[in-house]
Batch of 4 targets.
Target 1
Amino acid sequence: MSKRYAGITGTGHYVPEYVLTNQELETIVDTNDEWIRTRTGIRERRILKDKDKATSFMATRAAEEVLERTGTDPKEIDVIIVATVTPDYMFPATACLVQKNIGATRAYAFDMLAACSGFLFALTTGSNMIESGRAQKVLVIGADKMSSIVDYTDRNTCILFGDGAGAVLLEAFEEETGVIDYVHYTDGDDQCLLYQPAGGSKRPASHETVDLHLHSLRQDGRPVFKKATEGMADVSAEIMKRNNLTGEDVDWLVPHQANLRIISATANRMGLDPSKVMINIDKYGNTTAATIPLCLCEWSDRLSKGDKLVLTAFGGGLTWGATYVKWSV
Ligand code: COA
């Protein structure tokens, strides 16, 4: 069998209607618009207010959009992977709920947890399935309802995160296109720099864990900032070197949207003109697994077949990586 490639043939997204502005946050915690904008680049973020709706709702809407835009029958989908740290339930997987909602009756479905690197790792998994010949069409979704695990009394973290979902459809190609190469890393030594202390099997929910706010995410911002800046810049430079790419060759940088200063440092290191960097952190904040597919969807009209994209992310775990994609449509 000749080598197969996994190309991205379409994108979809969903963001909730409710806009949580920096000005509204000023009324909730001791912060101010100027501090948030200059330290992070964030002006506002979207929040899924409806108590009955969760991550699967947003993931389903993103999936429906990509199916519609590509004219794909859900029964053609072989695999659904949802990257998330905020699943509807501990189990079943959010991907199973999406599978039911969209009527992908032939697909098997599972979640992937790699925090802010979740979408990249899921993209790698999905593309490997296609390259192996075992799958023809794979839906890869990044979706997070971060508002469900954010402590809105903690000014260090509550200003950073928002809710949203993005999806891509991967399909098999004979020509060299789609996911060309990837470099992924993990460093479990620093697992507690960014994590959700309770709710898992180590500290199941109890009165004490609730009283201590241990079901909300915790982040030691300064070291995470330093490691994220180094990690994203280094891994992006590494993937460029492996593929003989210069800043001139790369058409788009698609960075995880955690902090505008981290994004700028990565673009600088790659020798990239700022006009080639996808940035929407100002509107959505950090939507964890959704940031990269949200960017791909928002920029999809400006992408042409053959465009060279470097996707890069850094997140809890610690996890980080970069993926080199040639746009397929
Ligand atoms: N409003 C106003 N002041 C705030 C604040 C807020 N929301 N949050 C923190 N501060 C204060 C701090 O208390 C501190 O005050 P002090 O000097 O009197 O102690 C001061 O601002 C500086 O805090 P510091 O944490 O050093 O700020 P920073 O420049 O590192 O920015 C982050 C904080 C969170 C924006 C930054 O560390 C960051 O982006 N970290 C990484 C995020 C990330 O990449 N996440 C992981 C990948 S998903």
Target 2
Amino acid sequence: MKILLTPALPAGKAAAVAAAAAELLPGARVRRAGSALEINSARPQAFADAAPALENLPGVAGVRLSEAELCPLACARPKKKISSPVNFGAGPVFIAGPCAVEDEASYLASASALKAAGAHALRAALFKPRSSPYAFQGLGWAGLKTILKAKKLTGLPLVTEATDTRQVARLAAACDILQVGARNMRNYELLKELARCGRAVLLKRGQRATLTEWLLSAEYLLAHGASKLILCERGGSGPLLDLRLMAAAKKLTGLPVIADPSHVSRDRATAALLARRALRAGADGLLIEASAAPLAARVDGRHTISIDTFRELTGN
Ligand code: PEP
Ligand code: MN
């Protein structure tokens, strides 16, 4: 933790801030470093409790915590790569499927074609968070038997989004990876419920979320019991992914970080282009909208890539 002191603070006042810091953080080392005080070795909760009190002291211009201090679990850099339900040790992982499960025949046709084209897991979206209340919200539980048939048919793990805490247990019983959508990155009660469900969790970066905010959401999951976590960069609103931020997340956390090139792309050519860029920038995989009939899709067909394009990406 760094406590920034106000410019030209008299030595006596700086010493008073240092004494207050030592009292608020018993056992921590307080060291003067230029116009700041540096504090090492405290528990994250102690930092979290002390920061507002320190910020409030006369002579303090601000308090800064590093990502590792804010998110020690997310920044712990696990030694082993996640190996189940998908294997992140051996080349990029491709999670693919239509935006939403729409009807059984089209979903099963896409699932088999994607498996043959090199998919490692299927998008199996039953609940769709949509900006308009009038837009298709997904099949919901009515689609459950369809995704289970696809799992049986292909042997591939299922990735599905939970949009509400009440869906978590039932989705976890059927699916292998539960997805936190961009809109829900800051839904902390949903994160806690997902953390406890026993399944791997795929956490998207919220639109406009900073690296720190994204990692704090990852920290929620890890602090509440998630043991397998995958991060997913999905960009903001323009047709761009933040590949520098993606690489920074990978470096800081050591977690698998994949990219979703679909949702910022207005057309399928852009989605394929961003997919390639993300892989070149070191993405551990893709979550991509792909299907056997993109032109017939009820949702997000414009940026859904064909099986042929998907096969070109996987190199199968
Ligand atoms: C999705 O992947 O189905 C989705 C809704 O994406 P996002 O949460 O990134 O908007
Ligand atoms: Mn979509």
Target 3
Amino acid sequence: MLLLGLETSCDETAAAVVEEVNDPVRPWRIRSSIVASQVAIHREWGGVVPELASRQHLRDICGVVERAVEEAGTSLAALDALAVTQGPGLVGSLLVGVSFAKSLALALGRPLVAVHHLAGHIESLFLEHGSLPLPAVVLVVSGGHTSLFHVPEAGVYRTIGRTRDDAAGEAYDKVAKLLGLGYPGGPIIDTLAKDGNDRAVDFPVSRMTHRDRVAPDRTVRFEFSFSGLKTSVLRYVRGQRIDGASDAARGARGEPVPQPRTLSAQEVRDIAASFQRVVVETLLDRTFGAARWVGAKSVGIAGGVSANSRLRRDAVIRGQEAGLPVFVPSLHLSTDNAAMIAAAGLRRFHEGGRAGWSLNAEASLAI
Ligand code: KG4
Ligand code: ZN
């Protein structure tokens, strides 16, 4: 069976053909996976501009789908089904994929399956590694999301934690911006941190109170929070640049306000490493705490931030300590792509999931 997946939830226009083969251990094979990234367009603005994103999806989608079909060595007529990301994401971006998928499915007379973007990230692990030992705990960590899922059996995703404010990738991007490092910040901070002292600055780890961890119905949650950390980095950077006193305080005392100094390259590397240590520790503390709590047999980490070299390295160490295998997707499957949407689509297809022609994009779709 051949399924075409489409993904346009944020700033990547992606299409992929995934084949289902008769192998119970690894049933999905990627025949093609094309991603047209808009990073160069949004870099100029320091973040994704929704209006520009949807316009660029419109320009790219036909070519991306044609290339995916061509590289898979197949034809549109040979496809058995289509799958598309319905949400969550930027509504204008999602609409391009949803409308395109509905039109193509209607024209070809093929069934269409709606996919939740985070289900796609979770399925990237199954696509890459075959089935994970279950139950599993999966952390999906990207620019838009930081969520923990309990996966008791394949295709069942129970949310057991999420961020209350910024996503981890968003914190990376904002910290990179305030350090003047460019966009997207994650890969830049990851690289700089390699030559930094991760104990140079003692940024606070956000601790959750009992009420944060136990919901009113007494179920345990594993919440994240990254906006406080981002503010601490901002305060620290400002303090360093003006030698610890604020311009306003100096002005009020009638003292001359000094010109802000520039941070040295080593100071920036140290800040990057110290910030990254706190993010990675927070992510792994919650993930392994959740794994203990649900009695998981494996841990998965997916989404753009799972490309982070320290997160990957430390996760494996924690896994060895806890006696749990840790799974991460390869780099091309960790950031947004359509192969993961096609995989999630194949699973939904066999569960009987079919989208009608009234399918609409949903910016805050629940899983
Ligand atoms: O999954 P993704 O491509 O898109 C969303 O669904 O958000 O994730 C993009 C996010 C960005 O915030 C980017 O800075 C972050 O993933 N990212 C990283 C790394 N590579 C990408 N963060 C930390 N370290 C990396 N190596
Ligand atoms: Zn994503």
Target 4
Amino acid sequence: MKRTSTIFICQNCGAKTSQFFGKCSSCEAWNSIIEEKIFASESKKITKNSPRSQQKGKYRSELISSIQENPITRLSSGYMEFDRVLGGGLVPGSLVLIGGDPGIGKSTLLLQAANQIAQQHSVIYMTAEESASQVQMRWNRLKKTDSNLHILSETDLEIIIEELEKFRPSVAIIDSIQALQDHTICSTPGSITQVRECAAALQQIAKSKNITLLIVGHVTKEGMLAGPKVLEHLVDTVLTFEGDRFASHRLLRAVKNRFGATNELGVFEMQGEGLVEVSNPSELFLSDENATGVATIVACEGTRPLAIDIQALINQTTYASPKRTATGIEGNRLHQILAVIEKHMQLALSRFDCYLAVAGGLEVDEPAADLGIAAAVISSYKNVQLPPGTILIGEIGLGGQLRSVGQLSIRLKEAERLGFERAVIPGKTPKNQISQKEFNLEIIEASTISEALSFALGLNF
Ligand code: TYD
Ligand code: MG
């Protein structure tokens, strides 16, 4: 008979204790500790005849150069944007976790991808949250044609594993891991122990039967994947699907990827008939306005350049201390840039409120946006428009100097492609050698923020 024992596990950080506490001593979360029963597995001793003892004395390791290379043939998900984020497609036998807020479109994305993959490979969509007919309703809504896609509505892990073993699909989709239940564990579905055990069982079958698993994971209130880090360590790739629920575009990002680069970005748009790929996302984030306080930058998401409009509004304050808000840009970054402008351009911004926003609800966290932010702020402050067709790229140092940024030529190529005429960039450094001839753009190099903005706005600072 299996022995059971009771432990208390924090659902927030996974810390284990032997007694109940109202507050987790490890992550300090309140009411996160839950009692869970676990079956003690029999300890595996190394006996004389076990394979481990027979190998005693022999090396198991091998020379790195002598290991045979296994070329990976990736499966296409049918969507270029999805494949890009995966690093070129799905790797057979890998586990991909897709996290995101409820209602963002995870099930829709995976159903569409499953349908595409099923044109050529065997695919099973296991839904633990909806009934098979609900999934079919969505499928009808997506106006999908006939394909070789199987559906199973099941929450029991044992049945799911059995089906995977019998059916042996190339790709299986599990929607979602938090709804699965392993009946040998006495804790509720979605608890840390359940999530971990279900994921471990699925991993084992994926690796042994070479099935690619796409697993949906829910996100907690704080935006973390529920069943915290345990899942992220186990899987090969972690993707997040995000976006503003009130805007139609959705961003797919890789947070961890054993088979490709992270920080790659895929852009989709949610329409009445499902998700549509956006292959030219720069157009989504350009506001097409000619107004004061608008500056265009080219940010890089992974290797993907995106032209984005930054908007600023500077108004005389009526408060004791001026109000500063930033949407899509870190507040500290804005404060820092305002301080540099005040000190090195002698503009008294401390009596002005400053509101900053990135068009399209995107988050920009790279320093290359600094010059664009400063230009938007000064354009609004001086009530002077930036000349149309200008982009600004550069990091601003605390001394007011412009620092070079990475992937400059990719950014300039994107600006050129979108029909921009002029680019203000940091002056040449040994690291960053851009030749004017390479681009069909007027390239203006500046070494300080005042120099760059004098050029851009045609004013004297
Ligand atoms: P869903 O895939 O169920 O989200 P998740 O699995 O992440 O919880 O998507 C739900 C939302 O998408 C829902 O609010 C309706 C919207 N939607 C569309 O706008 N168009 C469509 O064609 C579909 C299928 C869904
Ligand atoms: Mg869903």
